[in-house]
């Protein structure tokens, strides 16, 4: 594996950097406001009612992030995965918009196939456009076939119900609908993928793993032309399954899957065939692969090459759309610095990357403090932790820690559940610095 990743990345180089125009998150911008308020999005291509529903979903997603903070921190410590809050929210928004578009198409398709249900489904489509997902589900529930009858139409109804519940942020209700859809139409891999992804989000890793493994077998048995049509699905299945393997201490299996996935990425980039739609999936794969490799000291050189390539992609994309991709540049710089800083001989290089990330985040925070001030504090803590090892620079480190502490204290006044733990961490950083100064 040690040499494979970089070879795969070299294969990707000709095409990937030019793929930003198709990333739908470009139509959305994060809103500035009170730093304690939930982050919201404004998307130029969404109707006002749908925009409102998306932001309600994101608000609940941010509340969920609070609840999962401790378990996520444990995962980050294991894999050195440093995903920024902004990146997590953008992923949530991208998935939500895609799911909404999918549901709209599925409803239209079901209406055309079933003229007898035209009135009900027309009402459902109207409710969908108003963002009234509970009403959509209520209209569709009676359309489910009773008993064990397995038909593609019944599977579609279950799947549409699952999508409606997901948009309404009701994953518990969505799970049995996805399960029923897939079990009634095993040939529909998209049904299985949605079901597996939700199981994974609900931390039901064993069920999700079995499902992903089955989906991967099905995809590999397709003809070459069919596989070409399912490349994005194949990458998603491989990436998600590899992440489960990594989270459940199955490192070798995870590495093997990342190898296969990055080989596909390289082939796509060489042919430039549909590759522009895969940028979110590609960057996610690269980040997760780098995180896994970086956790092995013997493979840090390969991890560094992956992070450097990610930085290269992000910088290219940021040239044409800085609002969307500058946060990714800062995250890649931060990840690269975290890795390089482990080599005492390269701390100056790590410091430069930390400072670049901090500069970007400060500039972003000027116009959007609610999103980026926490990222500024993270960069300050990282930079201060690095320079604190130099006795001559401990005063400088103290200033950085104190600035981070002030940011977290201000944030904690109105959002203590999220930011009080960060206040405690910052206080500990200062205490350790003072102890070192007294030695």
From TrEMBL:
InterPro entries: TPR-like_helical_dom_sf, TPR_rpt. Residues 1-18 form the signal peptide. The keyword Zinc does not apply. The keyword Repeat applies. Pfam families: TPR_10. SMART domains: TPR (SM00028). Residues 72-113, 198-236 form a coiled coil. It comes from the Bacteria. Keywords: Coiled coil, Repeat, Signal, TPR repeat. This is Tetratricopeptide repeat protein.
């Amino acid at each position: 594996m040690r040499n494979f990743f970089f070879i795969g990345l070299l294969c990707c180089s000709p095409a990937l950097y030019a793929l930003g125009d198709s990333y739908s998150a470009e139509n959305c911008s994060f809103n500035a406001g009170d730093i304690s308020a939930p982050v919201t999005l404004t998307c130029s291509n969404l109707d006002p009612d749908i925009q409102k529903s998306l932001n309600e979903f994101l608000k609940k997603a941010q509340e969920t992030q609070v609840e999962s903070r401790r378990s996520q921190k444990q995962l980050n410590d294991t894999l050195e995965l440093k995903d920024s809050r902004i990146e997590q929210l953008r992923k949530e928004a991208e998935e939500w918009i895609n799911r909404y578009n999918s549901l709209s198409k599925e409803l239209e398709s079901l209406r055309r196939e079933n003229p007898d249900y035209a009135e009900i489904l027309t009402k459902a489509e109207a409710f969908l456009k108003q963002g009234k997902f509970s009403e959509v589900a209520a209209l569709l529930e009676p359309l489910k076939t009773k008993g064990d009858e397995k038909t593609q139409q019944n599977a579609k109804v279950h799947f549409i119900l699952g999508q409606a519940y997901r948009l309404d942020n009701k994953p518990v209700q969505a799970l049995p609908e996805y399960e029923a859809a897939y079990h009634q139409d095993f040939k529909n891999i998209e049904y299985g993928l949605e079901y597996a992804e939700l199981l994974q989000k609900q931390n039901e890793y064993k069920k999700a793993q079995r499902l992903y493994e089955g989906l991967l077998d099905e995809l590999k048995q397709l003809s070459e032309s069919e596989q070409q049509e399912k490349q994005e699905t194949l990458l998603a299945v491989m990436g998600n399954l590899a992440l489960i393997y990594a989270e459940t201490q199955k490192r070798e299996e995870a590495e093997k899957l990342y190898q296969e996935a990055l080989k596909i990425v390289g082939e796509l980039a060489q042919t430039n065939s549909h590759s522009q739609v895969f940028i979110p999936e590609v960057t996610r794969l690269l980040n997760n692969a780098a995180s896994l490799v970086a956790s092995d000291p013997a493979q840090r050189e390969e991890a560094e090459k992956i992070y450097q390539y990610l930085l290269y992609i992000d910088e290219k994309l940021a040239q044409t759309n800085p609002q969307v991709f500058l946060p990714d540049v800062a995250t890649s710089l931060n990840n690269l610095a975290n890795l390089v800083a482990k080599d005492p001989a390269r701390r100056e290089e790590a410091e430069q990357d930390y400072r670049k990330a901090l500069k970007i985040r400060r500039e972003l925070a000027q116009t959007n403090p609610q999103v980026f001030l926490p990222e500024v504090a993270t960069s300050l803590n990282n930079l201060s932790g690095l320079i604190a090892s130099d006795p001559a620079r401990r005063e400088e480190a103290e200033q950085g820690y104190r600035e981070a502490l002030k940011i977290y204290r201000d944030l904690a006044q109105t959002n203590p559940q999220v930011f009080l733990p960060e206040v405690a961490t910052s206080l500990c950083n200062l205490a350790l610095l003072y102890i070192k100064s007294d030695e």
